[in-house]
Structure formats: structure tokens, C-alpha cells
Protein: Fumarate/nitrate reduction transcriptional regulator Fnr
Amino acid sequence: MPHRALQIACSRCSLRELCMPVDISAADMERLDTLVTTRRRVKRGKPLYSRGDRFSALYAIRSGFFKTRVTASDGREQVTGFQMAGEIMGLDGIVSDEHTCDALALEDAEVCEMPYDRIESLSREVPALQTHVHKIMSREIVRDHGVMLLLGSMRAEERVASFLMNLLQRLHVRGFSEAELVLRMTREEIGSYLGLTLETVSRTFSRFADEGLIEVKHRQVRILDGAGLQTIVDSAGSRR
Amino acid sequence: MPHRALQIACSRCSLRELCMPVDISAADMERLDTLVTTRRRVKRGKPLYSRGDRFSALYAIRSGFFKTRVTASDGREQVTGFQMAGEIMGLDGIVSDEHTCDALALEDAEVCEMPYDRIESLSREVPALQTHVHKIMSREIVRDHGVMLLLGSMRAEERVASFLMNLLQRLHVRGFSEAELVLRMTREEIGSYLGLTLETVSRTFSRFADEGLIEVKHRQVRILDGAGLQTIVDSAGSRR
DNA sequence: CGTCACGTTGACTAATTTCAATAACGGTGG
DNA sequence: CCACCGTTATTGAAATTAGTCAACGTGACG
Structure:
């Protein structure tokens, strides 16, 4: 057995419960270990894949941080999400056999490549994997609906607070502090994701700081009043 | 063989190419005919499913028009899409075994119910169906990204033009005119979907009419200058 | 230690919302 | 069949949010 196969066994990966089905027999787990064929390193600023690239695999993030963005025919861009360890990327490519968005590393990253044809064939043999793949795609759809709600009905303050709370919650699941985070993206990228300009994002951070909700120092954010932020997210004082 | 089984055979359905995989053997097609167990009628204004309902099936629209909407904890709503004949609904429910949005009929409608456990088991036996299901989910994700682009980076005029062109294109595929359409939803529902108020939607329609791009009479819309509308959609004069 | 990308802040502008009044339609029941 | 009522749509004027333009800091990194 080649050494690398051991290295990339999902069964021994600490992120397993984020990427893989949980209730699964030892025998099935062994089969799933053949899903990831390669690890790939992506340097900060470099694409994992780009729009138009042939689709061939899904990727599980092992370390690092990504953004995905779509581009309109006229060139304007929209960040569609920020992805972190344990999350799956590439689902957009299945429908047309080519990727429809760009995935860019916001810091040096490593991903596990899972060839799509292997996912399909293994899914037929391991029902737990089949269900799992469906759930991952469904989760992405539900997440997207949440972003639509944010973009379609929240004001700037609510969007920014929502963004922070979302990051915080996802980082917390991964064992990080609930009270502190380091932003891996620029104000412009946050703005694109939230449908705001970078100035509005910056001003909103400053206002939150003035109000004693957070402490911001560049990309270092400390949460002083999480409940207060949550109140802003849930504030019924919306416009539409 | 019960009469109803004949009635609801996908193999004889005129919408087959919209819902079902195309390149498929006669034997496989016969198996797929067992996917749809029941037809269900939904009266205008009534839900096909609601948030919190147990998830058990996907639905293919046979006739009629739906909207889906999500609701925030504070009660504000966001329309996440409008669905028409041949489109699949219910994917949001897979991840958590319960629906996360409401699906409401905008006119009397009929849907084909496909029990999810049957989809899963048949998918394992018919790879073309497996791939098809994945593509449907991926298409939904790509569609959602398009909506994010619209909500995050387009101005009101662009959103409304984009909305009209999208409806037109989908209706055209279904054999309707490219120059005329009947809106099945209110200005408020359009506004919710586009992240605008109903007044802004109304005003934008009026402006398009003033400019000779369309003719609007309540929910009857005639396209006078499709190219002009497309120019607005693609206009690079965006803000963000 | 300088340069450049990133971030902050201010003043002004423009787009969209909000509030309000009116009009038109469609379904319902007399 | 027609009148009525509630819902839906239009339009105007005022208010507000967020965007734009511009200047200035500041930190990271070579």
C-alpha cells in the first residue's frame, strides 16, 4: 500500500465529520477512503478552479480559506461565498460539465480532490454516501436562500452583523473562539458578498465599534457584545 | 395494470424532456415510470409544502405556477424563485428532512410527486437518473448564484429587465411567445424576489413603457424591444 | 525604509424607500 | 347582470439609505 494512500485516508482525518457521512460501517469507511485521490495545494490568490474549466471533481477544504465569485457578461463580479475547512466546493460545475464560477484561495490552502465519476460510482454502492452528497447539495441551496434573504431584505447594518455572526458560528464549530476572528478577506470582498460598497462595510464596522459591539483593528475583530449583534440581525425594523 | 399508472407515465408525458434524463434506454424509461406515484392538485394560493413540513418527496410541476419563499426569524419574507411547468421543487428539504421554505401556487396547479426514497433507490440502479438528479441540484445552485449577482450588484432597472428576460426565455422554451407574457404574481412578489419595493417595480415598468421597451397593462406585458431590454441587463454601468 | 495595497473618514450625490392618495380591476353575491 | 368591496397597481413628494468621489492614514512586505 503506497504511503500516500495512508496519508490521505478520510477515516483518519480530523475533519472527517465535517466532510463525510457519520454513521457508517467500518467496511464502507474503507471504501470511502478511496474517494480522495490527491491533495492539492493552492497558493494565496491562486484559483482552485476558474469559470470555464472542465468539471471533473469536487474538493473538500483541508486547510485555508476560499472565496467563490461569479462574473456577469458585462464584467461585474459578485462574491457568492467564503469557504473554510471541511466545506465542499465545486458543485456548480456538475450541471454543465464546466465550472461556472471562480474559486480563489484567500490564504495558502490545501484541498482533497474527489473525482466526480468516483463519487457517482461509490454513491451507487454506498447509500450513506449517496444521501450525504444529496444533503451537501441541498445544504448549499438552503444556504443560498439565506444569502438571498440577506441581499433582498436586509439593510447594511443587518447584513454586516449577519456576516460576522455567520463566520463566528462556523469558526466556533471548528474549535475557534466565539469572541474573536481574523478576517481573511478585504473590505471590498466583504462588500461584494453583502451587496455593499467597501466604504459602507468599513463605516459599519466603525459604527459597531463606536457602539461597543465589536473592536476592529484591520482584519482582527473582537466581539464585545454578541447578543447585541444578534439583535441587529433579528431586528424586525426592516424596510421591505 | 391500474389505469392511473398509465395516466402518470413519465414516458408519455409531454414535459418529459424538461423533467427527466434524455438519453435513456426503453428499459430504464420503464423503470422511471415508477418514480411518480401520485399527481397532486394545488389550488391557487395554497401551499404545496410549508416550512417545517416533513420532507418526503420532490415535485415536478405539470401545470401551473409557483413561488417559493423563505422567512427570517423576525418574520420578513423573501421570495426565492418562481417555478413553472417542468421544474423540480422541494430540494431544500433534503438536508434536514424538513422543508425550509414555503412553496405556494400562484394559480391552480398540478404536480407529480416523486417520493425521495424511491428517487434514491432508483438512482442507484439507473446511473442516468443519478446524474440527472445531481444536475438538477447543481442547476439550482447555479441559478441561485445568478440571483445573488442580481441582488448584490444590479440597480433596479437592471433587475426588472433581467427578471422579464428570464421569464420570457423560460416561457419561450415551453412554447410560449417571446413577445408577450402574463405575470402570475403581484408587484409585491416581484419586488420581494428582486429586493425592491412594489412601488419601485411599478415605476420601473412604467418607465420601460415610457421608453417604448414594453407595453404594460396590469399583468399583461408585451415586449416591444427585447434587444433594448437585453442592453439594460448587460449594461456595464453598475454601481458596485 | 519606501512603496503599494488596504482601510478609514468626510462631504456630497443619487437611488430607492416611505408615506400617502388615487385608480383600476376581479371576484362575489344580490 | 351589475354593484360593491377588497386587493392590486399607479403615481407623487418627502425622507433616508447607501453610493460616489476624494483625501488621508497605516501596515505589511519586499
Residues 1-5 of chain B have pLDDT under 50 and may be disordered.
